[in-house]
Fold these 2 entries.
Entry 1:
Amino acid sequence: MRVTSMVAGLAVILAACGGEKKAEDQSTTTATPEQPAAAPAAGGATHDVKMLLEGSTYKYDPAELTIKSGDVVVFHNVSGFPHNVSFWADSIPAGGAEPLKASMADQMAPLEGPLFTEPDAVYKISFAGAPAGEYKYYCLPHLALGMKGKITVQ
Ligand SMILES: [Cu+2]
């Protein structure tokens, strides 16, 4: 007896899912980029001062600098180090010490910056909030050799 296998055809039922959703009902929020026109408080100019040994003279270059309140002075350790930046507290205008103390990293004493022994080390001092006036400073290791400078804040 022969067994006839019958192939049953498969009925493929297509289930049509008709669900169109409206894509991204965007609420049109007008993003207004509010740019404060000319905000000087964000950060002022940057000034560079080198600390170096030139011939037999230890010096800041430039030794005298005029900046605006809010500017940043970046000291560069070039040669003849160790150098540092120490402000004469009595040379600073009233209200000037606190912003500097807040800005100077790793002070050895108030208004006395750390000694730089690494070549090309940089030390940034922000004069944000510093009142106008003269800020005289010196290099602790080389004060006797006349290494000093002055920053005038306008
Ligand atoms: Cu020095």
Entry 2:
Amino acid sequence: MQEYDTVLVGAGPIGGFIANKLAEKKYNIAVFEKNKQIGIPMNCAGLVSSRVFENFGISKKGIVQNEIKGAKIHSPSGNVLSIGGDKTYATVINRTFFDQILIEKAEKNGANVFLENKIDKIFRKKEGLELRTSKNTNCFSRLLIAADGPFSNVRKTFEMQEPKEFLYGAGSELSGTNLDPDFVHIFVGNNIAPGFFAWIIPTNKEGTCARVGLCVNKNAKHSPKNYFNNLFKNKVSSTFLDDTKIEKYLGGAIPLGLIKKNFSDNIMLVGDAAAQVKPTSGGGIFPGLSCAIFCSDVAIDAIKCKDFSANFLKKYQKLCLKNVGKELVKGYRFRSIFKNLSDKQLDRYIIKLSDPHIVEVINEYGDIDFPSKLVKPIIRKAPLLLKLIIKSTK
Ligand SMILES: Cc1cc2nc3c(=O)[nH]c(=O)nc-3n(C[C@H](O)[C@H](O)[C@H](O)COP(=O)(O)OP(=O)(O)OC[C@H]3O[C@@H](n4cnc5c(N)ncnc54)[C@H](O)[C@@H]3O)c2cc1C
């Protein structure tokens, strides 16, 4: 049976990134991916901060489609909070190319990538794990890194902690839009996207193409696709969608509520598999890559020390929690308030936040990767908001 230093389950962006980190060190790595092609199907809005390139040494070439300078947030009754406009806050990426470039790098450095190979069965043996794929490939490794997405099979097999909740998405690539390419549109409301929000993101510099979509929570009355269709009829959102053409449908799920114990003997969970996702926006690329660095470092140490015990791998959990984990935990607290707001409350907050003094604060402190940085300065500027928040949680 083929033996590897590390086996990665899943060739999404997080699995691809870690595979490259380990392959660069010349370890014998296998990546198993159930899909036929990397990055397809693409289920992502593709909005990331420039940190994704700067912090992780990923080149922007061929990946960046557009740059976003601000956002227009629409309340259920049509009030608009307009933020930013002054500088680039986010980048729109071609997610398929992004995933492909990461895995190509790993392959160039020697990683063995097996497509259409779903990891079906995992058996715990005395020294490590034996894996069997849908193509009857058998292999053995002392270290398994599960980057197998929101509904991680590895997490389930080993009865590890589950995310607190899942959001379910529906969306599409659109052509024929007539948008200001600098601004994304966000729509909130219980008839628009219960428990989350809908978005329109211009995907080219002309504003003639966009990604439109939404996520809803489990208790939503209708299916995500129903809410998606409604965006084209709703009086607030439809004005941006008239006379457009749907090119391709998108879907997907987002896990929320960081899994704190993300390791076990011989196993580490990473990316969506560990719900390393910002609960306020559903963005998982930046936090997933941040934790992927820790995961790779601990994997390299484990291989060097030949120690794959939970006791050794727990360093990974500590690093995640000490760094990006803190922000994700704070984000989930904010989400717990947000998801229960009525349309009336959403309207009221958006009107309050539109005060020019508050917009100034949002523009100064707003950061899509660290939204909690905004809380204190906003409360300082508008203590009344804190009262409103406390009232809405009662
Ligand atoms: C609608 C929507 C919009 C989003 N928008 C954004 C955004 O704008 N910005 C952002 O940062 N994030 C966004 N996200 C989140 C982002 O897409 C994820 O956080 C990111 O894809 C996580 O990467 P990953 O590698 O952990 O998991 P995935 O990308 O899910 O990759 C997991 C891979 O594992 C494979 N796999 C699963 N099980 C097995 C198995 N048993 N054997 C072999 N292979 C397996 C899957 O086929 C998949 O390729 C969005 C998500 C959704 C659903």
